[in-house]
Amino acid sequence: MFLVDEEHFGELFSLLKSVKFKRSDFFLQEGEKCQYLGFVESGTMRSYYVNEDGVEKNFDFHFKHNFFTDYESILCDKKSNMNIQAVEEAEVLLLNKNELQKLYHKEAYWQQFGRRMTEKIYLGAKKRIEDLLYYSPEKRYLNLLKENPLVFEKIPQKFIASYLGITPQSLSRIRNRISH
């Protein structure tokens, strides 16, 4: 399992609960407090927000062997502004946030695990913000195609467009321009 060495894998695995999500099932809905860290065993999940106009804004996609959760909700013990939903049938391993805290207090290894996970999340969020601030929609599309081609195999076009900060029509124009 990502970020966990063989020596500690069994300890973590004993705390995990396997849950199957059907397409469109929610791991978390806006207004709920997040209680779990998720790990995708199979399938695909997405994290998104609904803006004040009721429009979904995709923030991230989670594929096999990715951790995901609403870290703000877990860390600050507050209601989530985020939705996390299955894009397709998915099997997810759940770790209760209280069990995670117990691991952190148990051994320095788990504190390092938490730090590595936090660093990975921070760098991913920083890159996401930089992409939206610095690059044109076409460049964002090309970057995504290069860095994560799986998105184009697993994720509906309307979700990809939202993730890139453009309309589905703009995405279609970009795809046509690039293919010619």
TrEMBL record:
Domain Cyclic nucleotide-binding: 1-103
Stored CDD domains: CAP_ED
Gene3D superfamilies in UniProt: Jelly Rolls
InterPro entries: cNMP-bd_dom, cNMP-bd_dom_sf, RmlC-like_jellyroll
UniProt-listed Pfam families: cNMP_binding
Superkingdom field: Bacteria
Protein name, entry field: Crp/Fnr family transcriptional regulator
The organism's taxonomic lineage, starting at the top: Bacteria, Pseudomonadati, Bacteroidota, Sphingobacteriia, Sphingobacteriales
